[in-house]
């Protein structure tokens, strides 16, 4: 039987998913893959992820899809986009759609896999 994730590894997984999303985005737009560049792109979304963890009290049930995963995902996108808008970074409609889908696959995907494995 697979043990459900503990809070710290789950938080680190969420943060890693956001960094992966930002790295893929920078690569697909031929932006530099430097630590500074990735951090510049990622910080609004990482802030949103942390806000989601607080809003969901995710440390209590970090691997739950609902409500934890959905709240973390929604905060990641909403707070991330609001911070990007506040700092004059891009928030085109197509970017919002792509960011929403990609972060949903990543942030909800690992939770879905963890749930399936925990049930086995």
UniProtKB/TrEMBL annotation:
It comes from Mycobacterium adipatum. InterPro entries: DUF3054. The keyword Transmembrane helix applies. It comes from the Bacteria. The chain crosses the membrane at residues 6-25, 37-59, 65-83, 95-118. Signal peptide: none annotated. Keywords: Membrane, Transmembrane, Transmembrane helix. This is DUF3054 domain-containing protein. It holds the Pfam family DUF3054.
């Amino acid at each position: 039987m697979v043990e459900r994730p503990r809070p710290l590894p789950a938080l680190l997984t969420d943060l890693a998913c956001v960094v992966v999303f930002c790295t893929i985005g920078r690569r697909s737009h031929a932006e530099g893959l430097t630590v500074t560049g990735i951090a510049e792109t990622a910080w609004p979304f990482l802030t949103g992820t942390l806000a989601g963890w607080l809003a969901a009290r995710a440390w209590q049930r970090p691997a739950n899809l609902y409500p934890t995963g959905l709240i973390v995902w929604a905060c990641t996108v909403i707070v991330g986009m609001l911070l990007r808008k506040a700092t004059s970074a891009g928030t085109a409609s197509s970017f919002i759609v792509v960011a929403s889908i990609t972060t949903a696959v990543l942030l909800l995907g690992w939770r879905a896999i963890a749930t399936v494995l925990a049930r086995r």
